[in-house]
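Listing S7. Sequence submitted for prediction.
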Amino acid sequence: MISIKSAQELDQMREAGRIIAEAFELMNEAVCPGVTTGELDQIVEDLIRKRGGIPAFKGYRGFPGSICASVNEEVVHGIPGTRRLEDGDLVKIDIGVKKGSFFGDSARTFGVGNVSDDAARLMEVCRDSLGAGMAKMQAGNKLRDVSAAIGDYATSRGYGVVEDFVGHGIGRELHESPQVPNFYRGSRFDYDVVLKAGMTLAIEPMINLGTHQVDTLSDGWTVVTKDRLLSAHFEHTVAVGSDGPEVLTSL
């Protein structure tokens, strides 16, 4: 079942989203050469708890961190720890928050210091592919419109779109129906879902410099590109409104 949120429920999701957006403002200052991913994790957790929220990822299926911190060829689900960021790295930070009874989920890719032109372009295309998908979050459209917009934008520019991991519904649970692929192909997903006002989806393209294929490392969490080339990840929790999409994970 796909849940439709009431106005009051959307207000609660906005509260979770604002905490996430505030955490990313801190990350804008904190991400720099020499900082560890564990230090970034602590900064985010401290803020979430100060604002009365709960880090949604911590303990989720045994995940040890409050954030996912994935560096360079790491696509998603990187475990924060002692790794120090270096000039030229790309670090993907994924943050989930539960506030009251509802969740928010968002991710951004940060360039550390001076990044290469290839890295900068990859981030730009990934961020813009998210924008292309969100623009299709209109009542009456179908899920295929969102998926195709994301995938077509990225693949037409020569990038690999990760297929093993997708976006998702979100609300009272961190992961709800429907699954939201970043591509439109095959019959694995229900692309015929009609978008209705009050639906809330976490849209999250994962775009690779090379192949779309990925591996999962021996820690059971960290997903890396199969060719070990760079990856970028952007995500927002978005509500379908009667007048168009509303990003819930922004200030």
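Caption to Listing S7: primary sequence and predicted structure tokens for the chain studied. The longest helix spans residues 7-30. The CA atoms of residues 30 and 44 lie 10 Å apart.
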